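DNA-binding response regulator (Streptomyces parvulus), 218 aa
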Amino acid sequence: MSDPKIRILLADDHALVRRGVRLILDREPDLEVVAEAGDGAEAIDMARAHTADLAVLDIAMPRLTGLQAARELAALKPGLRILMLTMHDNEQYLFQALKSGACGYVLKSVADRDLVAACRAAMRDEPFLYPGAVTALIRNYLDRVRHGEENADHVLTPREEEVLKLVAEGHSSKEIAEILFISVKTVQRHRANLLQKLGLRDRLELTRYAIRAGLIEP
């Protein structure tokens, strides 16, 4: 017996965008759009009327924005996963979305590449953020460390901060070694120290940690 499909509520105030996004989702065997909404208020009505596992919300919508709708949906349906789909590559929106209860942030410009993966990640309780968003989270975290807002055990050396930023930006150990004029072995040692200090296993966990620890503020 095959697994049940992931039931999706899709909200965007542009019918053309909804049609395009629906095409991307409905062609996947494990995804199914069960309801559509044209604004945030309608999205909440649809969530009450339909059983959905995941809400995909545009940020800029009339009546209620996607951020306001996300907050209400998180309170109304605690089990519902929420993804923000937006054209805004904007740190403020990103932080607000995560604070509102969203577990992922997908840019419309690359929705055909990222959205399906983001939906599946959300259902696995994994955060989905585009690379620039990961960098923003880490920069925010490092600023808080510098201002003494984080546990002293987590304070990183300037070199560890450099390595951390480069890791978050997706560079390999070899690339980092070339950028910082150090050996690959030294980079690997810094990475190991970083993960140990932060109690993490990999780059994805760093993102999870940033969200869970409230390192993001609107």
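The chain has a mean pLDDT of 82. DSSP finds ten helices and six strands in the chain. ok done for today
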